[in-house]
Design brief:
Helix content: 40-55%
Family: Belongs to the POMP/UMP1 family.
Structural class: mainly alpha
Distance between the termini: 72 Å
Keywords: Chaperone
Largest sheet: none
Number of helices: 8
Oligomer: single chain
Protein name: POMP protein
InterPro entries: Ump1 (IPR008012)
Length: 140
């Protein structure tokens, strides 16, 4: 009878989890730092991934439509213009509105969520211009 009880305990509780090098060992903060849980999170809703990639999916659909209508050169030219416009930016401590990119995408006349609630001029953090430039240039 005791043999049956020990086999039940042996089957239900793995012994390796109680060892010092097992999964119950504490995380060493001094050597490994804080653990990041953000990368392990799964989306809460099935549409969350679709919403995160909305602009990418919209651009891909527009490029496919443009290719079917005008040929291969039209989406290639537009992608080249997108890359050129994304490279032009202001200094790191100045807000860039990316009006040229919005104009290429056709969003220049639309008012969206980011236009109202994503205003960097109202943000609480404003860096020192010299330090931000030195950081960008790799001097710090």
């Amino acid at each position: 009878n005791s043999r049956g009880a020990s086999s039940l305990l042996k089957d239900s509780i793995p012994i390796t989890e109680f060892s010092a090098s097992g999964t119950l060992e504490g995380h060493d903060l001094l050597r490994r730092g804080f653990t990041s849980v953000k990368s392990e999170l799964l989306p809460c809703h099935p549409l969350e991934l679709s919403e995160k990639n909305f602009q990418l999916n919209q651009d891909k659909t527009n490029f496919d439509t443009l290719r079917n209508i005008q040929g291969l050169h039209a989406p290639l030219k537009l992608q080249m213009e997108f890359r050129a416009v994304k490279q032009v930016q202001r200094l790191p401590f100045l807000h860039s509105s990316n009006i040229a990119l919005d104009t290429l995408r056709g969003n220049d006349e639309c008012i969206s969520f980011e236009d109202i609630l994503n205003d960097p001029s109202q943000s609480e953090v404003m860096g020192e211009p010299h330090m931000m430039m030195e950081y960008k240039l790799g001097l710090l």
